[in-house]
Amino acid sequence: MSSNQRLQAPLLSALLACGALTAVNSAQAHQVWLENAGGQARLHFGEFNENLRETSPGRLDQFKGVPALEQQRAGAAAQRVEGQLAKDAFVYTTTGTPDTLFAAASYPLIDRSKRNLPAMVWQPSARWVASLAQPVAPTAPLDLVPTGKPGQLKVVYKGAPLPKAKVQLAAPSGWTREAEAGEDGTVTFVTPWKGQYVAEVKHSDKTPGEVQGEKYGEASYVTTLTFVLADGMASPALPEPPKAH
Fold it and tell me: Among 88, 181, 188, 242, which has the highest number of CB atoms less than 10 A from its own CB?
């Protein structure tokens, strides 16, 4: 190996590691969220407040298959709904008038060995509710659910309230606001506009574990809650989607 090649090798390794880190951070910066209208639910991957929806072919194909949708109505057993991959979402046909929908997407284990870190599992999930007026029982490891009180949401991790969790709410216009959960895991937001809102919470757990036979050293969760308000002021439109490069 020439002296020039010896100088280039560490630089190349650093660039590759940087590229891997960028890909990991980019995925974690994203969220999945559910929209439901006209008997069709859509699970999007991207950034709701930026009106960014990843597509297929593209980053939407990075998930391990099509996530199943769980449909729930009050007083009835939960129903599993299979979906399919479309251009900019996973799509599902819903029946009746569900009170809540939930989907957890499976993402490949993230290799961080180039930074001498254990593998990480990234677990994005999404919930949609028909109304904030009805409390919803949490079912996901990291869940964000309405309490039944106006504008109040609750963060729950593995069945217990998660104090100090940061919850971000994106309004129909893409405007965002953040609140910190109290000791009981609750946050309260003012929602002045009518239209669709998406709330998001993240949590990292460095307890080692195993998923589908693969070991990891850290679990990173991101969960969203979508709800639509029929009353309120008219909201400005979402921003124009980012232009493709």
Answer: 181
Residue 180 near residue 188 (C-beta atoms within 8 A): no
pLDDT in tens, 72-94: 988 788 999 999 999 999 999 99
Residue 71 is given by DSSP the state E
Burial string for 123-139 (b: 16+ CB within 10 Å, else e) reads bbbbbbbbebeeebebb
Instruction: Report how far residue 67's alpha carbon sits from residue 83's, in angstroms, rounded to the nearest whole number.
Output: 7
Q: DSSP 3-state assignment of 41? A: strand
Q: Phi then psi for 59, rounded to 5 degrees?
A: -70, -20
Strand partners, 85: 90
Q: pTM here?
A: 0.87
Three-state SS sequence of 73-116: CCCCCCEEECCEECCCCEEEECCCCCCEEEEECCCCCECCHHHC
- Are β-strands 90-93 and 40-47 bridged in parallel, bridged antiparallel, or unpaired? antiparallel
